[in-house]
C-alpha cells in the first residue's frame, strides 16, 4: 500500500516536472469528468495531463511505461463507446486540447498539417482564407471533436458522401508509440522527404487509422487539400417508406452527386423538430444569409425558411437531405437535377430544403444534442453495410426492436434512425436511443445553459438504463451477424468476437510491437482486457 502511494506520488511529481503544475490535473472532479464519455462512466482517472507538444507527451509516455501506468489518449471527448474511458485504476488520461495548432498549410504541395488536438472547426476556419479545403472536412461534432480523435475512430459527415470517411483524406501521421518512439508515416518515412504523399512501401498511415488509440498517440496529421467548391445546391425529399429512401440514397451516392447526405426516420425527425426553437432557426438563418452566393438568393432562401418554419415537416415520413457542392454553377445544377430525378424515380415528394441549407451554413453548432429534447439520455450506435444489404439489415433491426416494443413503451424509451452513405460503398444505419434517465457531468459541461435550464432532469432510471444497454448489446450482436462493420469501436463493441482468427492474431502481434508493456489504452479494440479471450 505504502509502496503504491509512493509510486503514485513519484509519478505525479515527474508529470508536473514535464507539463507544469497547471497541466497535471489530479482533483477529484477533473478525474471523474475526463474519464466519462458521452454515454459511459466507469472509474475516475488517476491524473489528466495536458502536454503542449510531442516532446512533452513522449516524456510522459516513457514515465507511464517505466512506472506501469495505463495511459490513454483523449481528443475532444465526443465519443460514446468508451474509447478513452479507463478500465484500470491508476490510468493517466492525455488531454490533447493544448496540442491544437495548424502546423503548415502548404498550398503548393496541397496538404495541411495539424497537431492532433486541432478541432475540425478550427481547421475549417483556418482554411477559409484560402480557396482550399480537405476532402472530408469534419463531423457534426467538429466544434469539439479533434482531428486525432476522429482519425483514431474514423468519422463521417462533411464531404464523406463523395470523398469517403475521415481516414481517406489522410496522407501522413506522426505517432508516439508505447516506448516513447516517434514514428512518421507516408512519404515522411523517407529520410529526406516531407509528408506530401501517402503511399511508399507498406501503408504505415493506414496501420494507425481506426486504431481507437490502441497502438499509439497521434501527435500530428497531414491531410490532403483540394479546391473548394463554391457552387451549392440543397435538396430535400419525403419518402413514404424506408426502402425508397434507402434506394434513393444508394443511387445518389453511387453516382457521386452529393458531398453530404442524411436521412431521418419519422421519430428522429420529430425529435429534431422539437429540439430547438424557431428562435434558434432564425439565428441560424443569419448563417444561411452569410453563406449564400448572391444577395437575392440569400433573401429568397431566408424568406422561404422563415415562412415555412417547421410546419412543412409535419407530415413528412422518411426524409432525405442532400448537399451538392461543385466548382461551376452548371455542374451544381446538373447534379441537383439528377438528385431530383432519382428521388422522383423512387417515389419521393420534394419538400423545402431548409434542413440541408441550415446544416450546411452552420456546419459546427454547439452540441446540445448530446441529450434528448426533454433531457433524455442519448445513445447512438451504428452499423455500416453494403448497399445490397441495407433493406435486409433495416428489416432485422426493426424486427428486433418490434419484439421489444412493449418494454420500450413501458419505459418510455424512444428509438429513432439516422441514415447516410459513405463514399459510394458504405450504407450507414444509426439507431438512436432516447432514454428517460439521469444525465452526467459531461452533459452539463457541454450543453448550453439556456438549453439546460429548459429541460426536465430525469432521476436515475435503472430499469430503462438496463433495457437500453441490453438492446444495444443485442443490436451489436445482430450487426455482427449481418456482416456489418463500425466506426467508434472503443470498448463497447466486441471487436474480437466478430473477427477472423488470422486477422485477430495479426492485430494482437502489431499491438505487441507497438506497445510491448501494454500501457496504451488497455481494453480498447478488445485488446488486453485481461481475460482468457485476449
Ligand atoms: C453531438 C454529436 C455529434 C456527432 N456527430 C458525428 C458525426 O457527424 N460523424 C461522426 O463520425 N461522429 C460523430 N460523433 C461522434 C464523435 O464526435 C466523433 O467520433 C469524433 O470524431 C470523436 O472525436 P474526439 O476528438 O472527440 O475523440 P475522442 O472521443 O476524444 O476519442 C475517440 C477515440 O480516439 C482516441 N484518440 C483521441 N485522440 C487521439 C490521439 N491523438 N491519438 C490516438 N488516439 C486518440 C481515444 O482514445 C478514443 O478511443 C458525434 C458525437 C456527438 C456527441
Structural features, described:
The structure is a single chain. With 534 residues, this protein is an alpha+beta fold. The longest helix is centred in the last third of the chain and has 20 residues, at 462-481. Helix content is 38%, strand content 18%. The protein has helices spanning 2-19, 28-33, 54-67, 120-127, 147-153, 160-163, 204-208, 242-254, 266-275, 278-291, 295-308, 329-345, 354-361, 390-402, 405-410, 441-446, 449-452, 462-481, 501-514, and strands at residues 24-25, 47-49, 71-74, 92-95, 102-106, 111-115, 132-133, 170-176, 182-184, 217-224, 226-227, 231-239, 260-264, 318-326, 349-351, 377-380, 383-385, 414-422, 426-435. It has 19 helices and 19 strands. It folds into four domains: 2-97, 2-Layer Sandwich (Uridine Diphospho-n-acetylenolpyruvylglucosamine Reductase, domain 2), CATH 3.30.43; 98-227, Uridine Diphospho-n-acetylenolpyruvylglucosamine Reductase, domain 3 (2-Layer Sandwich), CATH 3.30.465.10; 229-361, 2-Layer Sandwich (Alpha-Beta Plaits); 366-486, GMP Synthetase, Chain A, domain 3 (2-Layer Sandwich), CATH 3.30.300.330. Flavin-adenine dinucleotide binds at residues 38, 72-79, 83-84, 96, 116, 139-141, 145-146, 148-150, 152-153, 155-157, 212-213, 217-218, 367, 369-370, 487-488, 490, 521, 524.
Amino acid at each position: 500500500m505504502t509502496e503504491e502511494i509512493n509510486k503514485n506520488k513519484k509519478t505525479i511529481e515527474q508529470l508536473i516536472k514535464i507539463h507544469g503544475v497547471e497541466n497535471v490535473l489530479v482533483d477529484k472532479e477533473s478525474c471523474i469528468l475526463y474519464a466519462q464519455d458521452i454515454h459511459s462512466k466507469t472509474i475516475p482517472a488517476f491524473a489528466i495531463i495536458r502536454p503542449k507538444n510531442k516532446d512533452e507527451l513522449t516524456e510522459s509516455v516513457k514515465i507511464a511505461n517505466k512506472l506501469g501506468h495505463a495511459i490513454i489518449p483523449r481528443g475532444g471527448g465526443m465519443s460514446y463507446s468508451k474509447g478513452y474511458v479507463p478500465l484500470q485504476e491508476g490510468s493517466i488520461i492525455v488531454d490533447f486540447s493544448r496540442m491544437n495548432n495548424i502546423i503548415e498549410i502548404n498550398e503548393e504541395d496541397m496538404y495541411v498539417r495539424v497537431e492532433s488536438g486541432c478541432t475540425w472547426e478550427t481547421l475549417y476556419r483556418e482554411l477559409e482564407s484560402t480557396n482550399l479545403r480537405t476532402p472530408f472536412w469534419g463531423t457534426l461534432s467538429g466544434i469539439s471533436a479533434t482531428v486525432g480523435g476522429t482519425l483514431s475512430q474514423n468519422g463521417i459527415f462533411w464531404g464523406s458522401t463523395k470523398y469517403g470517411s475521415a481516414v481517406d483524406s489522410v496522407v501522413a501521421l506522426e505517432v508516439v508509440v508505447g516506448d516513447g518512439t516517434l514514428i512518421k508515416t507516408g512519404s515522411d518515412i523517407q529520410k529526406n522527404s516531407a509528408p506530401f504523399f501517402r503511399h511508399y512501401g507498406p501503408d504505415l498511415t493506414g496501420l494507425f487509422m481506426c486504431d481507437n488509440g490502441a497502438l499509439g498517440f497521434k501527435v500530428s496529421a497531414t491531410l490532403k487539400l483540394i479546391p473548394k467548391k463554391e457552387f451549392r445546391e440543397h435538396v430535400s425529399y419525403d419518402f413514404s417508406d424506408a426502402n425508397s429512401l434507402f434506394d434513393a440514397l444508394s443511387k445518389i451516392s453511387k453516382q457521386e452527386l452529393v458531398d453530404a447526405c442524411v436521412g431521418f426516420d419519422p421519430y428522429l425527425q420529430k425529435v429534431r423538430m422539437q429540439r430547438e426553437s424557431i428562435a434558434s432557426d432564425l439565428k441560424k438563418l443569419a448563417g444561411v444569409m452569410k453563406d449564400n452566393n448572391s444577395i437575392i438568393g440569400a433573401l429568397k432562401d431566408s424568406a422561404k425558411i422563415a415562412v415555412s418554419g417547421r410546419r412543412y415537416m409535419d407530415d413528412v415520413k422518411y426524409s432525405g437531405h442532400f448537399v451538392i457542392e461543385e466548382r461551376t454553377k452548371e455542374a451544381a445544377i446538373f447534379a441537383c437535377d439528377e438528385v431530383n430525378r432519382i428521388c422522383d424515380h423512387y417515389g419521393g415528394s420534394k419538400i423545402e430544403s431548409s434542413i440541408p441549407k441550415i446544416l450546411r451554413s452552420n456546419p459546427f453548432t454547439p452540441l446540445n444534442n448530446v441529450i434528448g429534447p426533454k433531457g433524455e439520455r442519448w445513445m447512438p450506435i451504428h452499423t455500416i453495410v453494403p448497399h445490397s444489404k441495407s433493406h435486409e439489415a433495416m428489416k432485422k433491426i426493426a424486427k428486433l426492436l418490434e419484439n421489444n416494443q412493449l418494454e420500450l413503451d413501458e419505459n418510455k424509451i424512444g428509438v429513432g434512425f439516422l441514415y447516410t452513405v459513405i463514399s459510394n460503398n458504405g450504407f450507414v444505419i444509426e439507431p438512436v436511443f432516447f432514454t428517460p434517465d439521469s444525465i452526467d457531468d459531461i452533459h452539463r459541461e457541454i450543453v448550453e445553459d439556456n438549453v439546460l435550464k429548459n429541460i426536465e432532469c430525469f432521476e436515475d432510471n435503472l430499469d430503462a438504463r438496463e433495457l437500453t444497454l441490453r438492446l444495444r448489446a443485442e443490436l451489436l450482436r445482430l450487426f455482427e451477424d449481418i456482416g456489418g462493420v463500425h466506426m467508434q469501436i472503443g470498448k463497447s463493441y466486441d471487436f474480437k468476437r466478430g473477427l477472423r482468427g488470422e486477422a485477430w492474431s495479426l492485430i494482437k502481434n502489431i499491438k505487441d510491437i507497438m506497445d510491448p508493456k501494454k500501457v496504451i489504452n488497455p481494453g480498447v479494440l478488445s485488446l488486453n482486457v485481461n481475460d482468457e479471450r485476449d
